[in-house]
TrEMBL record:
Subcellular localization(s) per the UniProt record: Cytoplasm
GO BP: asparaginyl-tRNA aminoacylation
CDD domains: AsnRS_cyto_like_N, AsxRS_core
The protein's assembly and partners: Homodimer.
Protein name (record): Asparagine--tRNA ligase
Catalysis performed (reactions): tRNA(Asn) + L-asparagine + ATP = L-asparaginyl-tRNA(Asn) + AMP + diphosphate + H(+)
Keywords on record: Aminoacyl-tRNA synthetase, ATP-binding, Cytoplasm, Ligase, Nucleotide-binding, Protein biosynthesis
PROSITE patterns in UniProt: AA_TRNA_LIGASE_II
SUPFAM superfamilies: Class II aaRS and biotin synthetases (SSF55681), Nucleic acid-binding proteins (SSF50249)
Stated family: Belongs to the class-II aminoacyl-tRNA synthetase family.
EC number, UniProt record: 6.1.1.22
């Protein structure tokens, strides 16, 4: 019976064959312990000299790291193992012997590991992070599909920017200028006017020369947009969505979280509703915490977000930012024209902003005014203005950064470990 490591619990007491790689091994006299991986998981295989032919035992003792094989044996329960099962080997067929695999069990520097990212992905730690990433994606589709959202794929090449063109990648689109998308939001607003509730999940690009542990040049975003929904209703969707994803990871990634030594007691507290504070209150809170340089009207950086998050054990919404530091499309607060109906969701434990969202301007004349203030005179924005001209309605949306969310839930320090092949300021390889 050919199977995978993840399916092994179904075959306790039976002989199976698995296609696997050797991630590590140790041997002592008449027994060899092989640490196997097959992409679905990790498992120990025990090769006893008295139970196999001599050539099989010698193969097991001499096999090199990352050699590939078909390995056959009986599945038995092993309560000492995190996985809970091991294989008692009866046969091994070598597929390819790996020679001088560069990533050994010893410690390696970050740059070395990043240069060998195509191989580093095979490690147990990176495997766990990628499985958590996959679960977040799976849970995202489940949440929005079950709540009546339609998946929309906005273009990656655009003729306009959602938030200004200074941090966009420019490219030539035949005889006109184009940009790599920094957000699908504008197009999703058009889709929401057609389909009600929509969401996208795709790559975005920011030509931002940042080297922090929270920034990537290319990253993935989940962006829902909802017609006939105001700002407060959108906040409820956001906290319900994040709560659903966190609980899904806790339920379906127990082994991976354990491998990463993640303190899951902190994640177990992540259930809606989330606390909310205004930008005004956040400024006062920061001043009380010793940030004397923070004045009303400045945007918050990573140290500010971390300091605010320390006061809460759940993600916290910071609402109603000054209009002058937010995007042109955000709707002003009806009671205060100097702030807009928006919120950033700040994750606990120093992981920073994971969601940015707002209610969008739905008034045609106000949007025309914003166009003038932001010099949006080109034809590339004409269609976006027309959304307010033909059947405009109140609508809201938000964007969640996948990699920051993966970092938070898996407990890794840097977002470079949360995407298979990170694109950083000075890294385009591999």
């Amino acid at each position: 019976m050919k199977t995978t490591i993840s399916q092994v619990p179904k075959y306790e007491g039976q002989a199976v064959t698995i296609g696997a790689w050797l991630s590590n091994k140790r041997s002592s006299g008449k027994i060899a312990f092989l640490q196997l991986r097959d992409g679905t998981g990790f498992m120990q295989a025990v090769v006893a000299k008295n139970d196999v032919a001599e050539d099989i035992f010698q193969l097991a003792k001499n096999m090199t790291q990352e050699s590939s094989m078909y390995i056959t044996g009986n599945i038995v329960e092993d309560k000492r193992s995190p996985f809970g099962y091991e294989m008692q080997v009866s046969d091994i067929k070598l597929i390819q012997e790996a020679v001088d695999y560069p990533i050994t069990p010893k410690e390696h520097g970050t740059e070395f590991l990043m240069d060998h990212r195509h191989l580093w992905l095979r490690s147990k730690r990176q495997h766990s992070v990628m499985k958590i990433r996959n679960e977040i994606i799976r849970a995202t589709y489940q949440f929005f599909n079950e709540n009546g959202y339609v998946k929309i794929d906005p273009p990656i090449l655009t003729g306009a920017s959602a938030e200004g063109t200074t941090e966009l990648f420019h490219t030539q689109y035949f005889d006109e200028e184009a940009y790599l998308s920094q957000s699908g939001q504008l197009y999703l607003e058009a889709a929401a006017m057609a389909l009600g509730k929509v969401f996208s999940f795709g790559p975005t690009f920011r030509a931002e020369k940042s080297k922090t542990r929270r920034h990537l040049i290319e990253f993935w975003m989940i962006e829902p947009e909802m017609a006939f929904m105001d700002h407060d209703e959108s906040l409820e969707v956001q906290e319900q969505y994040v709560s659903f994803v966190v609980q899904s990871v806790l339920m379906n990634c127990k082994l991976e979280l354990d491998t990463l030594e993640r303190d899951t007691s902190k994640l177990e507290k992540i259930k809606a509703p989330f606390p909310r504070i205004s930008y005004d209150d956040a400024v006062e809170m920061l001043k009380e915490k010793g940030f004397d340089d923070v004045e009303w009207g400045v945007d918050f950086g990573a140290p500010h977000e971390t300091a605010i998050a320390e006061s809460f054990d759940k993600p916290v919404f910071i609402t109603n930012y000054p209009a002058e530091i937010k995007a042109f499309y955000m709707k002003p607060d009806p009671e205060r024209s100097d702030v807009v109906l928006c919120a950033d969701l700040i994750a606990p434990e120093g992981y920073g902003e994971i969601i940015g969202g707002s209610q969008r301007i739905d008034d045609l004349e106000l949007m025309k005014q914003r166009y003038e203030e932001h010099d949006l005179t080109g034809p590339a924005y004409k269609w976006y203005l027309e959304l307010r001209q033909y059947g405009s309605v109140p609508h809201s949306g938000f964007g969640l950064g996948l990699e920051r969310t993966v970092a938070w839930l898996s407990g890794v320090e840097h977002v470079r470990e949360t995407i298979p092949f990170p694109r950083l300021l000075n890294r385009l390889y591999p």
